[in-house]
Amino acid sequence: MAQGIAAGRIVKPEDLVQQSNLAFYLLLRWFGWWIDMVVVLLLVLAWPILRDVVPNHILDNRAYQATILIWFAAAILYLPVCEAFWGRTLGKLLSGLVIIDRDGRRPGIGKALLRMLLRLIEANPLLMGGIPAGIAVLASQHRQRLGDMAAQTYVVRSKHLRMARLGATFPNLSGAGAPPRSMRS
Predict the structure, then answer these.
(1) Which of 10, 8, 26 is nearest to 173 (CA)?
(2) pLDDT per residue as tens digits for the range 89-114
(3) Residue 30, CB-side half-sphere exposure with 13 Å CA sphere
């Protein structure tokens, strides 16, 4: 069972997003995005690279030829599967970020796929290089790109999520004066 933020706390995902300096937060997201783009590129290019170094008698093998589909499937599924089940990709892990839903849990496959579909438009390195996603993060109230808004997910620093789960208090809470909303554990 996935662990939420903390039962009975007023800490909300949008509060956790506000704990970092906006420029630093945007830099972390950008850094993680580029790492993930390198991983996807390596998965896409793995078969052509291997084709150049593998002997011809192996290249003619049907089992080896079937690996083409495996490489492309891995490239396509890398982002949504990692985000759905672990709440992070390699890029988010190395940048110290994690994706959570409104209750502080991993997003699940549906939300991860929705994030992925919108990522194809707003964070595509071939279409304006992620500028639309950056603008959305800068302009949105809760530092979300369009995919996060649609999927109702938040990209937070993992250290802030850990602190919230341990019951730490945060200075930049947006819920001041609002009735507490219990975060399921």
Answers:
(1) 10
(2) 999 999 999 999 998 999 999 999 99
(3) 15
